[in-house]
Amino acid sequence: MRMVYLKMVLVSLLFFNIVLSCEKEMVHSIPEITINSPVENQVFEVRDTIQIDADISDEVNLISIKVGLVNQELISVQPAVYLYPQSASFKLRIDYPISETNLESGEYYLLISANNEFNYRNNYHKIFINALPQQIEEIIVLTEKNSNLIGVFSVTETDPVTLLFDIDCDFAASESDSRNRRLYVAGLNLINLRAYDFETSEMVWQKDAFPPLPLHVSDCLYFDKELYASFASYYIYGYRYDGSLVFNTTVEEGTLPSRLFKFNEFILADLQSKTGDNSFLSTYYQITGTEKQRLIIHFKVVEFFSADDDILLIASNENSNGLLQMYDPYGNILTDMLNIPGTIICGVKLSETEFLIGTDNGNFLLSLNPASLIPVLPEIEAYRFRFDPLNQIIYSSEPNLINVISYPAMTVQNTFTFTDSILNFHLIYNK
Known about the structure:
Blueprint: H1 2-26, E1 32-37, E2 42-45, E3 49-62, E4 64-70, E5 76-83, E6 87-97, E7 106-115, E8 120-130, E9 136-146, E10 149-155, E11 162-167, E12 173-177, E13 182-186, E14 193-197, E15 202-207, E16 221-224, E17 226-231, E18 235-239, E19 245-250, E20 255-263, E21 266-273, E22 279-285, E23 291-297, E24 300-306, E25 312-318, E26 321-328, E27 333-340, E28 344-349, E29 354-359, E30 362-367, E31 372-376, E32 384-388, E33 393-397, E34 401-406, E35 411-417, E36 421-429
Parallel strand pairs: 2-8
Antiparallel strand pairs: 1-3, 3-6, 4-5, 4-7, 7-8, 9-10, 9-36, 10-11, 12-13, 13-14, 14-15, 16-17, 17-18, 18-19, 20-21, 21-22, 22-23, 24-25, 25-26, 26-27, 28-29, 29-30, 30-31, 32-33, 33-34, 34-35
Protein backbone atom coordinates (compact mmCIF):
# COMPACT_ATOMS: atom_id res chain seq x y z
CA MET A 1 0.00 0.00 0.00
CA ARG A 2 2.83 2.37 0.84
CA MET A 3 4.42 1.60 -2.52
CA VAL A 4 1.20 2.53 -4.32
CA TYR A 5 0.96 5.77 -2.36
CA LEU A 6 4.62 6.62 -3.08
CA LYS A 7 4.09 6.02 -6.77
CA MET A 8 1.10 8.35 -6.75
CA VAL A 9 3.12 11.08 -5.04
CA LEU A 10 5.96 10.70 -7.55
CA VAL A 11 3.54 10.86 -10.48
CA SER A 12 1.92 13.98 -9.01
CA LEU A 13 5.29 15.69 -8.54
CA LEU A 14 6.32 14.78 -12.06
CA PHE A 15 3.07 16.19 -13.45
CA PHE A 16 3.50 19.38 -11.40
CA ASN A 17 7.04 19.86 -12.73
CA ILE A 18 5.84 19.37 -16.29
CA VAL A 19 3.12 22.00 -15.78
CA LEU A 20 5.63 24.46 -14.30
CA SER A 21 7.98 23.80 -17.20
CA CYS A 22 5.22 24.43 -19.73
CA GLU A 23 4.21 27.63 -17.97
CA LYS A 24 7.82 28.79 -18.08
CA GLU A 25 7.94 28.10 -21.78
CA MET A 26 4.68 30.03 -22.30
CA VAL A 27 6.15 33.28 -20.89
CA HIS A 28 7.04 35.48 -23.88
CA SER A 29 9.20 38.56 -24.09
CA ILE A 30 7.91 42.09 -24.80
CA PRO A 31 9.75 44.35 -27.25
CA GLU A 32 11.79 47.25 -25.88
CA ILE A 33 11.57 50.69 -27.55
CA THR A 34 13.93 53.60 -26.96
CA ILE A 35 13.16 56.84 -28.83
CA ASN A 36 16.24 59.00 -29.35
CA SER A 37 14.65 61.57 -31.65
CA PRO A 38 12.50 63.64 -31.60
CA VAL A 39 12.91 64.82 -28.03
CA GLU A 40 9.92 64.84 -25.69
CA ASN A 41 7.70 67.95 -26.09
CA GLN A 42 9.43 69.02 -29.33
CA VAL A 43 7.38 71.50 -31.39
CA PHE A 44 6.54 70.94 -35.07
CA GLU A 45 4.51 72.71 -37.73
CA VAL A 46 1.97 71.04 -39.99
CA ARG A 47 3.83 69.86 -43.13
CA ASP A 48 7.07 69.49 -41.17
CA THR A 49 8.84 66.14 -41.35
CA ILE A 50 9.62 64.35 -38.08
CA GLN A 51 13.03 62.69 -38.19
CA ILE A 52 12.59 59.58 -36.09
CA ASP A 53 15.52 57.76 -34.49
CA ALA A 54 14.62 54.80 -32.27
CA ASP A 55 16.19 51.53 -31.11
CA ILE A 56 13.88 48.54 -30.90
CA SER A 57 14.91 45.13 -29.60
CA ASP A 58 13.48 41.84 -28.37
CA GLU A 59 14.56 38.33 -27.37
CA VAL A 60 12.85 37.02 -30.49
CA ASN A 61 12.29 38.34 -33.99
CA LEU A 62 10.26 41.52 -34.41
CA ILE A 63 7.36 40.85 -36.76
CA SER A 64 6.21 44.42 -37.40
CA ILE A 65 6.72 48.04 -36.36
CA LYS A 66 4.09 50.76 -36.66
CA VAL A 67 4.80 54.51 -36.68
CA GLY A 68 1.83 56.86 -36.37
CA LEU A 69 0.46 60.07 -34.92
CA VAL A 70 -2.41 60.17 -32.40
CA ASN A 71 -4.24 62.90 -30.49
CA GLN A 72 -4.74 63.24 -26.74
CA GLU A 73 -7.51 60.62 -26.88
CA LEU A 74 -4.99 58.28 -28.58
CA ILE A 75 -7.03 58.36 -31.79
CA SER A 76 -5.07 58.22 -35.04
CA VAL A 77 -5.04 61.54 -36.91
CA GLN A 78 -3.19 60.53 -40.07
CA PRO A 79 -2.07 57.32 -41.84
CA ALA A 80 0.57 55.19 -40.11
CA VAL A 81 3.74 53.68 -41.60
CA TYR A 82 4.49 49.95 -41.19
CA LEU A 83 7.87 48.17 -41.29
CA TYR A 84 8.61 44.43 -41.13
CA PRO A 85 12.17 43.88 -39.80
CA GLN A 86 12.13 40.06 -39.15
CA SER A 87 15.08 40.46 -36.74
CA ALA A 88 15.51 40.66 -32.98
CA SER A 89 16.86 44.22 -33.07
CA PHE A 90 16.11 47.12 -35.36
CA LYS A 91 17.38 50.68 -35.71
CA LEU A 92 14.40 52.77 -36.78
CA ARG A 93 15.53 55.70 -38.91
CA ILE A 94 12.72 57.23 -40.96
CA ASP A 95 11.31 60.63 -41.97
CA TYR A 96 7.63 60.88 -41.02
CA PRO A 97 5.87 63.91 -42.57
CA ILE A 98 2.97 65.64 -40.81
CA SER A 99 0.73 65.50 -43.85
CA GLU A 100 -2.73 66.07 -42.36
CA THR A 101 -3.32 69.77 -43.11
CA ASN A 102 -6.47 70.02 -40.96
CA LEU A 103 -4.70 69.34 -37.64
CA GLU A 104 -5.39 71.93 -34.96
CA SER A 105 -2.66 73.34 -32.74
CA GLY A 106 -2.04 71.32 -29.60
CA GLU A 107 -0.60 68.23 -27.94
CA TYR A 108 -0.12 65.01 -29.92
CA TYR A 109 1.74 61.73 -29.49
CA LEU A 110 4.16 60.03 -31.82
CA LEU A 111 3.23 56.36 -31.56
CA ILE A 112 5.79 53.61 -32.14
CA SER A 113 4.40 50.11 -31.74
CA ALA A 114 6.53 46.94 -31.98
CA ASN A 115 5.17 43.40 -32.26
CA ASN A 116 6.70 39.97 -31.94
CA GLU A 117 4.71 36.82 -32.59
CA PHE A 118 2.99 36.92 -29.18
CA ASN A 119 3.34 40.37 -27.58
CA TYR A 120 3.54 44.04 -28.45
CA ARG A 121 4.59 47.32 -26.87
CA ASN A 122 3.29 50.84 -27.56
CA ASN A 123 5.49 53.84 -26.89
CA TYR A 124 3.68 57.22 -26.84
CA HIS A 125 6.07 60.15 -27.26
CA LYS A 126 4.53 63.59 -26.61
CA ILE A 127 5.08 66.36 -29.17
CA PHE A 128 3.35 69.65 -29.98
CA ILE A 129 2.07 70.67 -33.40
CA ASN A 130 1.20 74.17 -34.61
CA ALA A 131 -1.70 74.31 -37.07
CA LEU A 132 -1.31 75.41 -40.66
CA PRO A 133 -2.46 79.04 -40.99
CA GLN A 134 -5.76 79.18 -42.83
CA GLN A 135 -5.71 80.97 -46.17
CA ILE A 136 -7.89 81.21 -49.24
CA GLU A 137 -6.75 79.07 -52.18
CA GLU A 138 -9.28 79.74 -54.91
CA ILE A 139 -12.81 80.70 -55.82
CA ILE A 140 -15.00 77.96 -57.29
CA VAL A 141 -17.57 79.41 -59.72
CA LEU A 142 -20.55 77.52 -61.17
CA THR A 143 -22.01 78.84 -64.43
CA GLU A 144 -25.01 77.89 -66.54
CA LYS A 145 -23.73 76.72 -69.94
CA ASN A 146 -27.28 75.65 -70.78
CA SER A 147 -30.31 74.44 -68.81
CA ASN A 148 -28.79 70.96 -68.40
CA LEU A 149 -25.06 71.74 -68.26
CA ILE A 150 -23.08 73.42 -65.47
CA GLY A 151 -19.51 74.66 -65.85
CA VAL A 152 -17.28 74.54 -62.77
CA PHE A 153 -14.43 77.08 -62.85
CA SER A 154 -11.51 77.95 -60.60
CA VAL A 155 -10.35 81.53 -60.04
CA THR A 156 -6.94 82.26 -58.49
CA GLU A 157 -4.49 85.16 -58.58
CA THR A 158 -2.26 83.31 -61.06
CA ASP A 159 -5.01 81.67 -63.17
CA PRO A 160 -7.92 84.12 -63.37
CA VAL A 161 -10.52 81.75 -64.90
CA THR A 162 -9.85 78.04 -65.46
CA LEU A 163 -12.46 75.41 -66.35
CA LEU A 164 -12.23 72.44 -63.97
CA PHE A 165 -15.04 70.24 -65.28
CA ASP A 166 -18.64 70.20 -66.53
CA ILE A 167 -21.67 68.66 -64.82
CA ASP A 168 -24.56 67.26 -66.85
CA CYS A 169 -27.49 68.36 -64.72
CA ASP A 170 -29.89 71.15 -63.90
CA PHE A 171 -29.26 73.42 -60.91
CA ALA A 172 -31.03 74.24 -57.66
CA ALA A 173 -28.18 74.95 -55.22
CA SER A 174 -24.54 74.30 -54.37
CA GLU A 175 -22.28 74.31 -51.31
CA SER A 176 -18.58 73.68 -50.64
CA ASP A 177 -16.49 71.94 -47.97
CA SER A 178 -12.86 73.12 -47.95
CA ARG A 179 -11.77 70.67 -45.25
CA ASN A 180 -12.86 67.57 -47.17
CA ARG A 181 -12.37 69.10 -50.67
CA ARG A 182 -16.00 68.67 -51.66
CA LEU A 183 -18.36 70.53 -53.98
CA TYR A 184 -22.03 69.66 -53.45
CA VAL A 185 -24.63 70.25 -56.17
CA ALA A 186 -28.41 69.81 -55.90
CA GLY A 187 -30.65 69.62 -58.98
CA LEU A 188 -34.28 70.28 -59.82
CA ASN A 189 -35.57 67.44 -61.99
CA LEU A 190 -32.54 65.63 -63.44
CA ILE A 191 -30.49 64.90 -60.32
CA ASN A 192 -30.98 64.81 -56.57
CA LEU A 193 -27.63 65.48 -54.92
CA ARG A 194 -24.01 64.93 -55.98
CA ALA A 195 -20.65 65.40 -54.29
CA TYR A 196 -17.51 66.16 -56.32
CA ASP A 197 -13.87 66.22 -55.29
CA PHE A 198 -12.85 69.60 -56.71
CA GLU A 199 -9.17 68.62 -56.76
CA THR A 200 -9.64 65.49 -58.88
CA SER A 201 -12.86 66.68 -60.61
CA GLU A 202 -14.37 63.25 -59.85
CA MET A 203 -17.84 62.59 -58.49
CA VAL A 204 -17.37 60.79 -55.16
CA TRP A 205 -21.01 60.03 -54.32
CA GLN A 206 -24.54 60.78 -55.39
CA LYS A 207 -28.10 60.35 -54.09
CA ASP A 208 -30.63 58.98 -56.54
CA ALA A 209 -33.53 61.15 -57.66
CA PHE A 210 -37.02 60.14 -56.58
CA PRO A 211 -40.54 61.47 -57.29
CA PRO A 212 -42.27 63.82 -57.00
CA LEU A 213 -40.40 66.44 -59.00
CA PRO A 214 -38.91 68.97 -58.68
CA LEU A 215 -36.71 67.59 -55.91
CA HIS A 216 -35.44 70.89 -54.52
CA VAL A 217 -36.07 74.61 -54.52
CA SER A 218 -33.48 77.32 -55.04
CA ASP A 219 -30.85 77.65 -52.27
CA CYS A 220 -31.97 74.41 -50.64
CA LEU A 221 -28.46 73.57 -49.32
CA TYR A 222 -26.69 74.74 -46.18
CA PHE A 223 -23.23 73.68 -45.02
CA ASP A 224 -21.76 73.82 -41.51
CA LYS A 225 -19.39 70.86 -40.97
CA GLU A 226 -22.16 68.69 -42.42
CA LEU A 227 -24.35 69.29 -45.46
CA TYR A 228 -28.08 69.94 -44.92
CA ALA A 229 -30.59 69.71 -47.76
CA SER A 230 -34.28 70.59 -47.92
CA PHE A 231 -36.48 68.62 -50.31
CA ALA A 232 -39.64 69.83 -52.05
CA SER A 233 -41.17 66.47 -51.08
CA TYR A 234 -41.36 67.10 -47.33
CA TYR A 235 -37.88 66.07 -46.13
CA ILE A 236 -34.85 67.68 -44.56
CA TYR A 237 -31.71 65.53 -44.59
CA GLY A 238 -28.18 66.03 -43.29
CA TYR A 239 -25.12 64.28 -44.76
CA ARG A 240 -21.51 63.78 -43.76
CA TYR A 241 -18.79 64.40 -46.36
CA ASP A 242 -18.87 60.69 -47.29
CA GLY A 243 -22.61 60.74 -48.04
CA SER A 244 -23.75 58.96 -44.88
CA LEU A 245 -26.91 60.30 -43.24
CA VAL A 246 -26.46 62.38 -40.09
CA PHE A 247 -29.85 64.14 -39.80
CA ASN A 248 -33.37 63.57 -41.05
CA THR A 249 -36.83 64.92 -40.36
CA THR A 250 -40.16 65.08 -42.15
CA VAL A 251 -42.44 68.09 -42.59
CA GLU A 252 -46.11 68.36 -43.53
CA GLU A 253 -47.19 67.80 -47.12
CA GLY A 254 -48.65 71.30 -47.34
CA THR A 255 -45.34 73.03 -46.64
CA LEU A 256 -42.24 73.56 -48.74
CA PRO A 257 -38.96 73.58 -46.75
CA SER A 258 -36.53 76.04 -48.29
CA ARG A 259 -33.85 78.01 -46.41
CA LEU A 260 -32.02 76.14 -43.62
CA PHE A 261 -29.63 77.21 -40.88
CA LYS A 262 -27.67 75.42 -38.15
CA PHE A 263 -27.58 77.34 -34.88
CA ASN A 264 -26.09 75.81 -31.73
CA GLU A 265 -28.04 72.56 -31.13
CA PHE A 266 -30.81 73.44 -33.60
CA ILE A 267 -31.64 73.23 -37.28
CA LEU A 268 -33.96 76.05 -38.38
CA ALA A 269 -36.14 75.81 -41.47
CA ASP A 270 -38.32 78.24 -43.39
CA LEU A 271 -41.44 76.20 -44.24
CA GLN A 272 -43.36 78.05 -46.93
CA SER A 273 -46.99 77.10 -47.52
CA LYS A 274 -47.84 75.34 -50.78
CA THR A 275 -51.56 75.95 -50.41
CA GLY A 276 -51.81 79.58 -49.28
CA ASP A 277 -52.24 78.64 -45.63
CA ASN A 278 -49.80 79.58 -42.88
CA SER A 279 -46.05 79.42 -43.38
CA PHE A 280 -43.80 78.53 -40.43
CA LEU A 281 -40.40 79.13 -38.96
CA SER A 282 -39.62 75.71 -37.46
CA THR A 283 -36.87 74.66 -35.07
CA TYR A 284 -35.58 71.07 -34.90
CA TYR A 285 -33.15 69.40 -32.55
CA GLN A 286 -30.00 68.63 -34.50
CA ILE A 287 -29.35 65.28 -32.79
CA THR A 288 -32.83 63.73 -33.01
CA GLY A 289 -34.55 65.63 -35.84
CA THR A 290 -37.52 66.19 -33.51
CA GLU A 291 -39.36 69.47 -33.96
CA LYS A 292 -38.94 71.70 -30.91
CA GLN A 293 -41.33 74.45 -31.91
CA ARG A 294 -42.76 76.50 -34.75
CA LEU A 295 -43.84 80.06 -35.33
CA ILE A 296 -46.41 81.31 -37.86
CA ILE A 297 -44.73 83.73 -40.29
CA HIS A 298 -45.85 85.94 -43.18
CA PHE A 299 -42.47 86.36 -44.87
CA LYS A 300 -39.95 84.34 -46.88
CA VAL A 301 -36.44 83.95 -45.43
CA VAL A 302 -33.55 85.10 -47.62
CA GLU A 303 -30.68 84.70 -45.11
CA PHE A 304 -30.14 83.60 -41.51
CA PHE A 305 -27.23 85.07 -39.50
CA SER A 306 -26.02 84.42 -35.97
CA ALA A 307 -26.16 87.70 -34.03
CA ASP A 308 -24.87 86.45 -30.65
CA ASP A 309 -24.84 83.22 -28.64
CA ASP A 310 -28.65 83.04 -28.33
CA ILE A 311 -30.06 85.31 -31.05
CA LEU A 312 -30.36 85.11 -34.83
CA LEU A 313 -30.81 87.85 -37.39
CA ILE A 314 -33.25 87.03 -40.20
CA ALA A 315 -33.24 88.88 -43.53
CA SER A 316 -36.58 88.27 -45.26
CA ASN A 317 -39.14 89.63 -47.70
CA GLU A 318 -42.82 90.23 -46.99
CA ASN A 319 -44.87 91.23 -50.04
CA SER A 320 -41.62 92.18 -51.87
CA ASN A 321 -40.55 94.46 -49.01
CA GLY A 322 -37.33 93.78 -47.14
CA LEU A 323 -37.44 93.16 -43.41
CA LEU A 324 -34.81 92.50 -40.75
CA GLN A 325 -35.86 90.69 -37.57
CA MET A 326 -34.26 89.23 -34.46
CA TYR A 327 -35.23 85.70 -33.45
CA ASP A 328 -34.68 83.93 -30.14
CA PRO A 329 -35.00 80.15 -30.79
CA TYR A 330 -34.88 79.39 -27.07
CA GLY A 331 -37.88 81.56 -26.24
CA ASN A 332 -39.43 81.30 -29.74
CA ILE A 333 -39.65 85.10 -29.85
CA LEU A 334 -39.52 87.09 -33.11
CA THR A 335 -38.89 90.85 -32.99
CA ASP A 336 -39.09 93.30 -35.91
CA MET A 337 -35.94 95.36 -36.24
CA LEU A 338 -35.73 97.34 -39.50
CA ASN A 339 -37.54 97.77 -42.81
CA ILE A 340 -35.23 97.56 -45.84
CA PRO A 341 -35.86 99.62 -49.00
CA GLY A 342 -36.68 97.20 -51.81
CA THR A 343 -36.61 93.40 -52.00
CA ILE A 344 -33.69 91.67 -50.28
CA ILE A 345 -31.70 89.49 -52.69
CA CYS A 346 -28.65 88.46 -50.63
CA GLY A 347 -26.62 89.20 -47.54
CA VAL A 348 -23.44 88.33 -45.66
CA LYS A 349 -22.12 88.73 -42.12
CA LEU A 350 -19.00 90.92 -41.92
CA SER A 351 -18.48 91.07 -38.15
CA GLU A 352 -20.43 90.58 -34.94
CA THR A 353 -22.08 93.97 -35.47
CA GLU A 354 -22.02 94.58 -39.24
CA PHE A 355 -23.83 92.90 -42.14
CA LEU A 356 -23.98 93.64 -45.86
CA ILE A 357 -27.46 93.44 -47.41
CA GLY A 358 -28.07 93.45 -51.19
CA THR A 359 -31.47 94.47 -52.57
CA ASP A 360 -33.04 95.38 -55.90
CA ASN A 361 -32.82 98.97 -54.65
CA GLY A 362 -29.09 98.98 -53.83
CA ASN A 363 -26.71 97.62 -51.19
CA PHE A 364 -26.73 98.56 -47.52
CA LEU A 365 -24.32 98.24 -44.63
CA LEU A 366 -26.32 97.20 -41.57
CA SER A 367 -24.89 98.09 -38.17
CA LEU A 368 -26.29 96.86 -34.87
CA ASN A 369 -26.45 98.67 -31.52
CA PRO A 370 -27.93 100.98 -32.56
CA ALA A 371 -29.48 99.59 -35.73
CA SER A 372 -28.70 101.66 -38.82
CA LEU A 373 -28.50 101.30 -42.62
CA ILE A 374 -25.92 103.02 -44.80
CA PRO A 375 -26.07 102.80 -48.63
CA VAL A 376 -22.83 101.37 -50.09
CA LEU A 377 -21.46 100.01 -53.39
CA PRO A 378 -23.92 101.83 -55.67
CA GLU A 379 -22.13 100.52 -58.78
CA ILE A 380 -22.73 96.83 -57.94
CA GLU A 381 -25.87 94.81 -58.67
CA ALA A 382 -25.24 91.95 -56.24
CA TYR A 383 -26.85 88.55 -56.56
CA ARG A 384 -24.65 86.87 -53.92
CA PHE A 385 -22.10 87.98 -51.33
CA ARG A 386 -19.22 86.04 -49.72
CA PHE A 387 -16.78 87.36 -47.14
CA ASP A 388 -13.18 86.33 -46.45
CA PRO A 389 -12.47 87.47 -42.86
CA LEU A 390 -8.80 86.54 -43.09
CA ASN A 391 -8.07 89.16 -45.73
CA GLN A 392 -11.08 91.41 -45.09
CA ILE A 393 -12.34 90.96 -48.65
CA ILE A 394 -15.96 90.90 -49.83
CA TYR A 395 -16.80 88.99 -53.01
CA SER A 396 -20.00 89.64 -54.96
CA SER A 397 -21.49 88.06 -58.04
CA GLU A 398 -23.42 89.76 -60.81
CA PRO A 399 -24.89 87.90 -63.81
CA ASN A 400 -21.46 87.53 -65.47
CA LEU A 401 -19.02 89.08 -62.98
CA ILE A 402 -17.23 88.30 -59.73
CA ASN A 403 -16.20 91.48 -57.91
CA VAL A 404 -13.41 91.66 -55.32
CA ILE A 405 -14.15 94.40 -52.76
CA SER A 406 -11.99 95.66 -49.91
CA TYR A 407 -13.56 95.99 -46.48
CA PRO A 408 -14.18 98.34 -44.71
CA ALA A 409 -13.13 100.73 -47.51
CA MET A 410 -15.85 99.30 -49.80
CA THR A 411 -13.83 99.77 -52.99
CA VAL A 412 -13.71 97.35 -55.92
CA GLN A 413 -10.17 95.97 -56.33
CA ASN A 414 -10.66 93.45 -59.12
CA THR A 415 -13.25 91.89 -61.41
CA PHE A 416 -13.46 88.48 -63.10
CA THR A 417 -15.66 88.09 -66.18
CA PHE A 418 -17.50 84.95 -67.33
CA THR A 419 -19.17 84.17 -70.63
CA ASP A 420 -22.11 82.34 -69.08
CA SER A 421 -24.45 83.35 -66.25
CA ILE A 422 -23.09 82.71 -62.77
CA LEU A 423 -25.21 80.29 -60.72
CA ASN A 424 -23.17 80.37 -57.51
CA PHE A 425 -19.62 80.73 -56.21
CA HIS A 426 -17.67 79.53 -53.16
CA LEU A 427 -14.49 80.54 -51.35
CA ILE A 428 -12.12 77.56 -50.95
CA TYR A 429 -9.57 77.49 -48.14
CA ASN A 430 -6.54 75.28 -47.55
CA LYS A 431 -8.19 73.62 -44.52
